[in-house]
Amino acid sequence: MKTVAVSRADSPHSGDFASVYAAHHAEALRLAYLLCGDRHRAEDAVAEAFVKTYRRMQRGGVDQPRAYVRRVVINEVNSRFRRLLLERREAAKRSADDRGERTAADQLADHDEVFAALRALPERQRTVVVLRYYEDLTEKAIAEAMHISVGTVKSTLHRALQRLREVLGEEVA
Amino acid sequence: MAFEDRLRQSLASRATDVEPDPATWDRVQSRIRRGRILRAALAGAGGLAVVALAFVMVPALTNRTIEFEPAAPPAVQPTEPTAMPSPSPTAPPTEPYAPTRPATPGVVNHVDVYFTREGAECGEDTVAHQRTVEGAGVLRGALAHLLLGPTPQEQGDGARTVFPEGIGDVLNDVTITDGVARIDFAYFADRMQVTSCTTMALLAQLDATATQFPSVSRAIYSFDGSVKDFYLAFELAPPDSDEPGAPAAVRQKAEQIRLAAEAGSYRRLEALMPEDFSCTFSDQPEPCRPYWRDLERRGEDPLGTLADLLTRPATRDGDSDMWVWPAAWAEPGAQYNGPRTGIAADGTWRYYVAEPGG
User: H/E element holding B105?
Assistant: First the structure.
């Protein structure tokens, strides 16, 4: 039995999907990693994000693939259900292989005090900070990516920066 | 260095910790085929019991090597086979192999019905088999074919179904509103063995068949008009969205709370709290704002969680005047003790417990 690419009814879009995947996979993975701080969770979330992107493309296309993939990655990483499922899955795997373990890079990341402080932020605040200072998105684009208002982006970013400054001993502006 | 620059530099540096894994492409392809089981659990039924079932199933899935068959060519299928196949490999044919209520004559549509596979009878991997349906009632037609089970040839190729034999006439009604298909059956749970495995397979087959259509994002099932009867028959919690609507006062207050939480405004939330508002159920209630601030320092997001809860439908808590979120909190005998909030029928916000156990 042969393992093959995406199967039925995908012929009209399979080429498009492969292109979207090739163009945005690396960026999506890095975004997911910054949001959750764990490479395995990031890989899992990105795989699921592309599954959803594929299904969406099958239903009629995606106008802005990069923005769409980014939005789905954010949802996947921050999904409470998904987090619980993964915790359960990784717990089950821990005795069988090393996928539940933290790598040297993950441990090194903990020594980056800025990154460590970022990981201690509430999920919403962390997401806004990453989108603003890693993806360089405008407040309007962040609002669209997170399905929240621009006002909420501003207030969340303000609280997040305030918290980071406190934790990192920076002077509050 | 400016603080914002320090942030940018750290994020850019950390992002290089990870490099794309070529194996992810294979995972994506595999999930497109087999991911329906998880969607069935999370989107189809929506209840806590189903989520719990998914917890049980997912580790099992990840420990198994699954190969996927090549894409099936668009083989010519018999429009309406003349012989009824047995729904299970051992059952003899008992009735004509055609839906008992065929769609009205008209355009012939190709639809998929989803069966399980030999060796994956718990629905870990449903496989599409093409059928044809005449007329506009494609969902009804697809479901009717689903109930009839795989053909003998498909069975020989490994297709299996969890539906009991001889239930080709149990499909009562099918309606689609706002992306939600409501599918009513005559009671048939007493004709099959109900286990976590058969329940998972049943939902996987039903949900995959129902949600193949762009107009259907999820499906709610019922027995003889009762959603509760269907889900209880399979030891599941009824889906949230089928609960009766909350009073206007509850809905209005919920929206005010949600917007305040979404904006991260403790001041606006406090303005919505009565004096006897509870944010813990401990013997010595704490002031809410310091408690929630403390949760934030521990990496929780109590206001975001509250906003998320209130995007879901309200559920009446038994016979009381309290409407609660999430639905799992109101289930009789439920073990749920996660984040929850409640508003009285007169619109008074009574409590919000932000962490498990409260």
Answer: none
